[in-house]
């Protein structure tokens, strides 16, 4: 009887260790510090399928105004760099989400992986020795957000915006540098097949954070979405 109990305890311990091993990388999905619920958590919490709407219809609900002055803008208006969430910073969270064949040096740090870059369409083999090859882009540039309504948000909400996975993509570093703080009227990804998804994500961010679009920005986004009128809003 004692031997049977020992076997049961041993098997239970092995199962626990296996489950912990699987769960450890998933710690980066948790985010109580900024009260951010990542989209992949929402699906499991709500047990409801995503219901994406039309990006073109959503665009038509956004206010259209001129750009506000950039006065007072600094990166720090959106928090001091990347947020730390359960010991992992937002950059590593997005790298873990967007890359494949990921290798971690610990529960948080991505040291290698492969990115199918959405902005150029090329494949990038990433190593931490060449960290600048991949950058995390704020799809709605923070200075653009500042000039289209974000200065009216609370500091906490701006920090959430800057660390929201909806707003972030791992992309080719040089392309991100070329984009800088441009909106859709000034810059679109060289990879034309991704443009519909790109502007749809901008619409989703602006809708979520009650930002507006400029007339030129609205026209540029509309021109893209007219080529893909059924494009839905992203869920991640």
Please give a structural write-up.
The strands form 3 sheets. The protein has a 3-stranded antiparallel β-sheet. Helix content is 38%, strand content 13%. It folds into 2 domains: 1-25; 31-225, no CATH class. The protein is α+β, with helices and mostly antiparallel strands. The N and C termini lie far apart (52 Å). It has helices at 2-23, 39-46, 55-59, 90-98, 142-147, 155-162, 173-179, 195-208, 215-225, and strands spanning 84-85, 88-89, 100-104, 110-116, 123-127, 134-138, 168-172.
Question: TL;DR?
Answer:
The chain has two domains: 1-25; 31-225, no CATH class. Helices cover 38% and strands 13% of the residues. The protein has helices at 2-23, 39-46, 55-59, 90-98, 142-147, 155-162, 173-179, 195-208, 215-225; strands at 84-85, 88-89, 100-104, 110-116, 123-127, 134-138, 168-172.
Q: Structural class from helices and strands?
A: alpha+beta
Report, as a whole number of angstroms, the end-to-end distance: 52 Å
The biggest sheet amounts to:
3 strands, antiparallel
Count structural domains. 2
Which regions contain 5 or more consecutive residues with pLDDT less than 50? 1-52
Shape: globular
Rg over CA atoms: 20 Å
Largest sheet, spatial ordering of strands = 3-4-5
How large a portion of the residues is in β-strands, by DSSP E? 5-15%
Helix content: 25-40%
Element-by-element helix/strand order: HHHEEHEEEEHHEHHH
Number of alpha- plus pi-helical segments: 9
How many beta-strand elements?
7
Mean pLDDT: 84
């Amino acid at each position: 009887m004692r031997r049977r109990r020992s076997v049961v305890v041993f098997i239970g311990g092995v199962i626990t260790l296996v489950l912990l091993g699987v769960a450890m990388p998933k710690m980066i999905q948790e985010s109580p510090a900024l009260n951010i619920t990542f989209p992949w958590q929402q699906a499991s919490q709500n047990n409801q399928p995503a219901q994406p709407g039309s990006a073109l219809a959503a665009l038509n609900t956004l206010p259209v105004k001129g750009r506000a002055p950039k006065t007072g803008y600094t990166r720090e208006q959106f928090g001091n760099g990347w947020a730390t969430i359960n010991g992992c910073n937002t950059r590593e969270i997005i790298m873990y989400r967007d890359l494949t064949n990921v290798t971690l040096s610990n529960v948080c740090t991505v040291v290698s992986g492969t990115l199918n870059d959405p902005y150029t369409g090329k494949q990038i083999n990433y190593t931490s020795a060449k960290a600048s090859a991949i950058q995390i882009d704020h799809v709605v540039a923070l200075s653009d957000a500042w000039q289209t309504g974000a200065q009216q948000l609370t500091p906490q909400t701006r920090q959430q915006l800057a660390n929201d996975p909806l707003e972030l993509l791992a992309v080719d570093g040089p392309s991100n540098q070329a984009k800088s703080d441009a909106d859709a009227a000034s810059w679109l990804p060289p990879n034309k097949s991704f443009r519909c998804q790109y502007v749809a994500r901008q619409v989703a961010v602006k809708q979520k954070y009650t930002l507006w679009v400029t007339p030129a920005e609205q026209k540029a986004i509309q021109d893209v979405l007219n080529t893909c009128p059924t494009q839905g809003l992203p869920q991640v």
